[in-house]
Every structure is written in C-alpha cells, then in structure tokens.
Please model this.
Amino acid sequence: MAEKSKPSPDRRQFLAEAFRYAALGTLGVIGGAAFAKRYRMVQDGKCVDSGLCKECGLFEKCYKPQVWQIDPYKCIACGNCATYCVLEESAVKCVQVYPVCGYCKICFGFFEPEPHDINEGAENQLCPTGAIKRTYIEDPYYEYTIDESLCIGCGKCVKGCNTFGNGSFFLQVRHDRCLNCNECAIAAACPSGAFVRVPADRPYLLKEVEHA
Amino acid sequence: MDRRLGATDIRVFVGILIGLVIVIAVVAVIRLDTTGEKGSGLGTDFEYNLEQLGKIDPNLILFEESAKPIDTGFETTHAISIDSHGAIYVAGDKVVRVFNDGGKLLNTIELPEAPMALTVETIASEDSKSENLKIYVAMKDHVEIYNGDGKSLASWKSLGDKAILTSIAVSENNVFIADAGNRIVWCYDTTGKIINRIGRKEEDRNIPGFVIPSPYFDLAVGRDGLLRVVNPGIHHIEAYTFEGDLEFAWGEFSTGVKGFCGCCNPVNFAILGGPDPAGADDSFVTCEKGLTRVKIYDPEGSFVGVVAGPEQLVEGGKVETCDTPEECHLGGFDVAVDSAGRVFVLDTIKNIVRIFSRIEDPS
Model:
C-alpha cells in the first residue's frame, strides 16, 4: 500500500505562519531593545556594548540597571536640558565640584561678563534665577554653591565657568528627580551626544581635578 | 426638504471638523521637535553672549597677521619660545620642534614626557666667535636641559607631586621657574641648585602671595633686571628683585579692552626687548583666555593697543574660542616676540603659530 504523502501547506497557511513568526520576532526585538535601554553589561565598573559576562557568561551578574547621565566633558551647555525634560521642572541641575573650583573672587560663572560692581547685587549676577550663592572665605577666595530649588539647568553659568575658569560648574541629571525614561527627551535633543547611560550604582559623572 | 438639507449640513460640518482635527494633528507632529534642532526656546536672559564684548575698535589694533600660520603638527601644544636668531621653538606632545619663520622644520628634540614650558638661552663662547644654545624644558615637576643639537645636558630633581611647572626664564646665572601647584617661583642656579623662593605670601614684606585658580602662571625677566610674574587671580603683573622683594605691580580687572578680563588673566606674556615696534621699549605683550586678546602695555602698565582680538584669533568671526570643556581647558594661548618686534601667538587649540607685525601706518 502506497504511503499517503503529507499534504503541503497552501499559500494562505504559509503566509499566516510567516506573519506569526515575524510578529513574534518583532516583539522580541522591541523587548530586547527596551531591555538594552534599561540594562547594559557592566564590567570593571564600566558599561560595555558587547561581549560575554566574565563572571557568568550570561547576564545575571553583569547586566545591571542603567540610568541617564550627562558626560561633562561633552556637554556644551546649550540650554536644551532646561526645556526638553518631560518634567515641569527639569531633572538636570548645575553641580559644583569643589576640588576643581578656583574659589575665584571674580567668578565668571557667577558674575555677568561686564558686572557693574564686584558684589552679590542681582544686577551683577549671571544666573537668571539667582541660583548661585557666593560666600566669602578669606581674601581673595569665595565659595560658590548651587541652590537646586532655583536652578533650572539652563547651563548659562556652565558656559561662563568653562570659558573663563576651570569648568567646576557643570550639568548633571539628578536622580532624586529623574524618571529614567527609556527614551529620554533631553537625550534625543542633545546636540553634542553628551547624554549617556551609566550604571545605576554609579549614577554621576564628575569632573576630575586637573589644576593646581 | 429643509430637514434633508439640515442633515446634509451636519455631515459636512462633522467632515470639516474631522478634517481640521487631522490637519492640526499632522501639523503638531511635524512641528514636534524631538532632536533639539529648534533650540531650548529660552529667552535672551538665558543666553551667554560675548559677541559685543569681543568686538575691538579697529583703531586700537596696531598689528596685522604678516605671514601664513605655521602648522606645528602637534596634537597638543603648550609653549613657544624664540632664540636670538629668530628660530621658533614649540613644545608639545613629547617633542620640541624648531621652525624658521617660514614654517620649515629645522630640528626636533624628543622628550621623555609632555612639556609644560620652555626657554632658549644663547651663550657666547669665551672668544665671542661662536654661540651655544641651551634649551630649558619644564616638565610637570622638573626641568630637562638640552643643547642645540637636542643632546640631553641635565635633568634636575623633581619638585614633588604637587608641582605644576608652567613657565621658565633664564637670566645670567639664575633660572626662574613658575610652579602653579605650589604657587611659588623657584630660583635655581645653572647647576640645578635651588637658591631662593619668590612670592610666598608675607604681609611683613607686603607680598600678597600668588592667586592661581588655573594652571596658568607665567614669568619673564625684563631688561631692567627685575623678574616679572603674573598674579592671575588678582589680574596683576608683579615686579620682583632676584632676592624676592616686591617692587611694584600693575594691572586691573576689566572686561573692557584696557584691563584683564575673566577670573584669572593674563595667562601668558612676553617682553618686547628689541627695536621698539609699539612706541615703547620693553613693553609687554599679554595674552588672555576666555575672551582671547593679545595686547600691548608700556613698561609702566598703561594700555597701548591690541595685537589681535577674538575676531583675528578665532576663525569665522566667532568670539568664543572654545565650544567643549576640553577645548576651553586648552584655550590659554602662549606668546613670544622676536628681536624685530614681531609677535608670535601659539594657538593651543588649533596647534598653529600665528605671526603678527606692526602695521606701518594704522590710520
């Protein structure tokens, strides 16, 4: 008795199967991309883009949650951080790294480029929201601190400090405010590619001391 | 009949409404800026604008660029010096390169590490028939000395981890080294022995101490036998005897062209010693960062004129020298002068040397 041959699938069946697998594959890619946005492999304290985990070969130990941060050496203080954040008050704030600061008497992150006088009068201050506090230490040194409740992350002081001083003022995403969106609106609008993902257990990128 | 007409009107109205909603939605999506191209939308109060301040009255500009810029070929440059014959020494990367004023490479001296500053001493032989060169190169924490052929003559002891040497000058038997890390000027003899420390804060001697917020701290010896040292944090150039007594100081803060702008300027200077091109022998050529300006002051510190302003030194008519923090960090240009009174500006961002000569008739 001749064996009954297996019926070949018709075109409609074939297309339906192909569509299902394609949809499944697309879902996998989207899921993977979403996972990759939030988790990246971290080895020796740094995010790496590829390679197997040194410890387990998989992702259990090496893949860690990521958060958004600004690379202070790439940031050009364009002002987009102040307005592109989905929060009403941007999660980006100016920070001050004291070991880098020169404690200048005439700080160009604090004073207008052409101040009327060298004092704390509002008309002499660079910050439009008055978010920088100037405190006398000893002649001729002054300390500058950021009032985060007033800072909107516009980066005007960052430009002044970078141009004339040591660059001790710079912008950082503050993680007590940031929602850590998968698609950060500021990152998409950043013209210098300064927005990067960093491991959540090391969420800040601080400048290093490079001066006297 | 009327009712049918009314029904038709409502359908048209709903259709128009839906069409309008679709148009508004499409326009909103098109106008949505997800790439930051349209800028922050913040007002002018939030802009940092130096454009007006960077403009210099053309009548104040006494020099013009007189030759094609010299491309040094370095990735990073730190200092420039000119010997008595007009050869141009540029220190950068881990090399000193020697050029003629046409930009031809004459010599190369390999260094063990990155240089911070250099100076060239010309020593006449005992019979005065020949000359020898001694090239002093300041590294971060010590000094290396080479002859004109690039042969190492000496390597002085390190001044420690805290030292950041930024300038060096030689006068007779004294070698002066500016140390921004320790905020002091070291005075050596020519054998490498420390013989004095100049500029430490001493109220009894009326010495204010050096205020150095960033690693720019220059010095030079004038023909009057006084050591000139920049005190950048208080915008002064101070004159010291070789024994360390402060004789006088000049300079003031001003964003206007006659003063020194920013938190800490001037970053570098040179003393015009040859035939006077600017109307006063031994006048000073100063270089500022931030608002990059090269200017001339007479020996008493009165403003004389401008060699080049931001519009001459930054391409494309831009006023700000730097965009990124890395560029800004490198943005302290160095200056040197030759015996003909020409001013050589080392652009430490583009790593080129620009040559400026006095305009014969500025009017």
In short: The longest strand of chain B covers residues 117-124. Chain B has two domains: 1-33, 52-358. Residues 1-33 of chain B form one domain.
